[in-house]
Amino acid sequence: MTHPSLPEWVFPPPGGFSAEDLDRIPDLPAHTELIDGSLVFVSPQASFHTRAVDLLVSGLRRTVPAELRVRREMSVVLGRDQRPEPDLSVVRASAEQSPEQTFYRAEDVVLVVEVVSPESKTRDRKRKPSLYASAGIPHFWIVESDDGRPVVHAYELDEVTGGYVITGIHHELLKVSSPFTVDIDLTEIDLL
User: Fold this and answer.
1) pLDDT of residue 2
2) 146 located within any domain
3) Is residue 32 in a domain?
4) Same-domain pairing of 35 and 107
5) Name one Pfam family in it (predicted).
6) Residues 134, 162 within the same domain
7) Are 164 and 129 contacting, i.e. CB atoms less than 8 angstroms apart?
8) For the chain, which terminus, N or C, has the lower number of CB atoms within 10 Å?
């Protein structure tokens, strides 16, 4: 029995929703994610979140190799019941199928970045890294706010353990050589 004021899709089917359901459900709120077969709705983003994503997208696009693309807010299918939407991803250029494309596959993703919001702390810090690592995504960054300044925690997949290991915590300058050469002045967030 459903409540008359709620859409039918609010109630999960037996076994939960599948990754494909996100493209079929009418009037689904923007940026809805699928985590463990359940729909996750995001809250409005704060200024820090938007500015941090803009800063990283701009910086990554300056140095990304020709065979890769930087994309923001595109979902990634990790499995039947897993389709999170990272704040940004770096994907293989060959993963681009059409302008109407709504997701990428895990095997096409080189890096995912999550900017932590107050409502998503547990998902961004605990659940999503586990999901991304299990799907074999080689690099994961999580961005935290330190009094309005971004701090980037960079991780790389350890193929022996199947989990991420930290490769650095970057406060004012994000300078890494993997997955490609990146050099971003994190203090430029104040200029956005």
Assistant:
1) 52
2) yes
3) yes
4) no
5) Uma2
6) yes
7) yes
8) N
Specify the residue for token string 């406060």.
171
Q: 107 — phi, psi (to 5°)?
A: -65, -15
Q: 18: domain range? A: 8-40
Distances (CA, A) of 6 to 3, 12, 33, 80: 6, 13, 19, 25
Q: Phi and psi dihedrals of 177, rounded to 5?
A: -110, -5
Same domain, 128 and 185: yes
Q: For 50-110, give the DSSP string.
A: HHHHHHHHHHHHHH--TTEEEEES-EEE-BTTBB---SEEEEEGGG---TT--EEEGGGEE
Is 18 in the same domain as 64? no
pLDDT in tens, 63-88: 999 999 999 999 999 999 999 999 99
pTM > 0.70: yes
